[in-house]
Amino acid sequence: MQFAQRLQPLQTNVFADMDRAKAIARASGKDIIDLSLGSSDLPASPHTIAAIAASLQDPSTHGYLLFHGTQAFRQAVAQWYTERFGIPVDPETEVLPLIGSQEGTAHLPLAILNPGDFALLQDPGYPSHAGGVYLASGQIYPMPLLAENQFLPIFENIPTPVLAQAGMMVLSYPHNPTTAIAPLTFFQKAVAFCHQHDLVLVHDFPYVDLIFSDNTPLSVPPLLAPSVLQADPNKDCSIEFFTFSKSYNMGGFRIGYAIGNAKLIKALRQVKAAIDFNQYRGILNGAIAALQGPQDSVKAMVATFQKRRDTFIKSLHRIGWQVPVPVATMYVWAKLPEPWQKDSVKFCTQLVEATGVAASPGAGFGKAGEGYVRFALVQEPDVLEIAVERISVFLNA
After folding, report:
1. pLDDT at residue 371 greater than cutoff 70
2. CA Rg, the chain, in Å?
């Protein structure tokens, strides 16, 4: 039996690898504390669940849902975005519902890249960004994200021959896994660079709300994560992906959307039309309720992860593992102690086997992630403290 060569780069995946390691540890009797997957453990809001529940009783929601049936959702998205960022959005031509932002970022390369074309990706970066490029038979040029550069790529370092063959650049801030944020001036530079080299600028924006305000003085406004379309208000070359998985704790419902250049939206819609219909209308009704209803649950979600961050960081510092305090996301990006800096996979595998604490190896997010480990703050503070106690025993052993 023959398989396509494009499957070769997809043989390994950081989450699948850790899932196997967790299964082995669980089979040996270990109590697993899973900090490896960024899946929120918090519930969706009651008004969101109520909207979905009401839809279940409506037989008209039980059939296929085509694009024009998503109009109410697209209008709610456009209104939310315009109120949030001050950029007008046409819900008919500039918004596309998605089965999560991961689906969108994975399918978009099929609409942009010809075989052999380059995509400029962050290193480290989210695995599905690379997976979509491989499925489109494209090539990847990794843009290293280094601590000394605030985990921002240096565009001037990209070779001219690569740029001549490149079709797209993918960015994502607040960033998974490094937790870095990017100012609007950075996005303005990225837009100018993409204009210069005729690149599509893709921004994956799942952590739009998950940014902590306690890192700024009281005399200045709270930190806000900028949208790439604020740097490209005419949407000349940009498309941005959003999800309900983080802000609204709806990861299992698989609902997201794209906003951006009308031609890019149309092209992605053509790809989707060959692969899937939209998801259940009731889920879209729940998403509308989430966007238009009270936002108390979003504020509570941010406060919860901020509290968990503080607990986890203090506990790590107490055992002597000095890591920076993240200003955004639900993660801690920790540089490994000296004995482990060349093999983050071995560290995470042996950690879960010995202690039951599961984390994600930095190498799983790209070559530049080696020497780091990512902890997802998806457990209550008391469980996080227990996890650090186990980590301490492991490190001392």
Report:
1. yes
2. 21
